Amino acid sequence: MMSTGVVTAARVTHRCGGVDQIAAASPESQERAVTELLTVPEIEEAYVLSTCNRVEAYVVGADHAVGRAALEEFFAAVDDEAVVSTDHDESLRHLLRVAAGLESVLLGEDQIIGQVRTAYEDARDADGIGSMLEAAITKAIHVGERARTETAINEGVVSLGSAATRRAANEVDLEGATALVVGAGEMGQLAARSLAAAGIDELVVVNRTVSHADHLVADIGTETEIEATAAPLEALDTVGSRADVVVTATGSETPVVEPRHLGGTAGADADGIEQVVVDLGQPRDVAPAAAGLPSVRVFDLDDLESVTEETREQRSEAAREVEAMIDHEFDLLCEQYKRARADEAIAAMYESAERIKEREVETALSQLEGEEGEAHREVVEAMADSLVNQLLAPPTKSLREAAAEDDWSTIHTALQLFNPEFEADDRPIVPPSIATATTGEATNGDPPIGTAEDD
């Protein structure tokens, strides 16, 4: 039986909330968060996506009021102004955009599609995925894969964090290196992830608020095999000197990295490998005197900005292609839901006809003279099947056309006529926009829901 609810979603992301708000919203685990949402009466399905840049929750409920109430409780620890809530259509579109990388800090980054998949598996383990979210999430993953294989959305270097990694790689071999990131904000996160993907062996993230660094390294630790640890800013005295690469991005008004924190105080190491420091701070995070250390090379924002400009433009062009792709795939998803609504009525119609056919075949066979015989049965059943198919072909076509045209009264009537379990006083089968309009809610033409095979 397909779901008869609507999707409602809420989120706290890097676009609408700070690091503290995202941390406040972050659940202990995605699976446990889904389990918690499913305890709310009338919530039929649930899906939670939690990363260091976003916490998003999607629920399927009888109507949007039910979904909003559940999500308000879920995000109760977060300031209201940091939470964005969406109804059916907008929630589905947003999910497609997330998987395609259009909502990421780094436009088109690849990591998010793996995170969407992991959250999907966690929700399945918690029994949170039903017909509605199954179609939506698998569609989102499909869109994400298309965006990355058919466009240039994930090509080149577009952020200063990834540019810092490229700059460092030009100076030292990152394979097996130890990297230190100072700061766990947006730019620090990008730098940390970029370094982790470049083949380093160890990553240390230091931050004034250690819990923010903990959240970042936890994510990186589960996604890669590198050793990732968090430490307070005071640990610079010990961890700074042993790092091959240091990237700073704190937003501090004064330098936080002094010459005494860096390996250059004792000169170049035995292999003559320099320590590379990339300062992404504005104002500077690294004291100017550090550039005078014999085994330290310091790069600042002026050294990096030109690296990102070309690929930033390249990805912006690709993003327009992805937007058009999402429009098309969203329309297919809506058609998929509509067809599923019609298919339930069609299935009920055929089941009813099958019961009548079986009864009449048995009656006809019992009235035949002589022994029934297998030949008689085959002839009679073939005739009955032919009659059923011919009689039901026109209404089948009409019901699918009705669904495509949002004619839900026809679908509802068909269910009443052919499904003995469908009571006349059941809630009408209509698209969410009509179902919620009676309570004064607007959902911008939300599509009907149900299940169907992937397009």
From TrEMBL:
NADP(+) binds at G183, A184, G185, E186, M187, G188. PROSITE patterns: GLUTR. It catalyses: (S)-4-amino-5-oxopentanoate + tRNA(Glu) + NADP(+) = L-glutamyl-tRNA(Glu) + NADPH + H(+). The keyword Ubl conjugation does not apply. Residues 321-419 form the Tetrapyrrole biosynthesis glutamyl-tRNA reductase dimerisation domain. The active site is at C52 (nucleophile). GO terms for molecular function: glutamyl-tRNA reductase activity; NADP binding. Signal peptide: none annotated. One of its GO terms (biological process) is protoporphyrinogen IX biosynthetic process from glutamate. Keywords: NADP, Oxidoreductase, Porphyrin biosynthesis. Pathway: Porphyrin-containing compound metabolism; protoporphyrin-IX biosynthesis; 5-aminolevulinate from L-glutamyl-tRNA(Glu): step 1/2. Its EC number is 1.2.1.70. It is an enzyme of class 1 (oxidoreductase). It comes from the Archaea. Pfam families: GlutR_dimer, GlutR_N, Shikimate_DH. Belongs to the glutamyl-tRNA reductase family. During catalysis, the active site Cys acts as a nucleophile attacking the alpha-carbonyl group of tRNA-bound glutamate with the formation of a thioester intermediate between enzyme and glutamate, and the concomitant release of tRNA(Glu). The thioester intermediate is finally reduced by direct hydride transfer from NADPH, to form the product GSA. Catalyzes the NADPH-dependent reduction of glutamyl-tRNA(Glu) to glutamate 1-semialdehyde (GSA). Homodimer. This is Glutamyl-tRNA reductase. It comes from Natrinema salaciae. The gene is hemA.
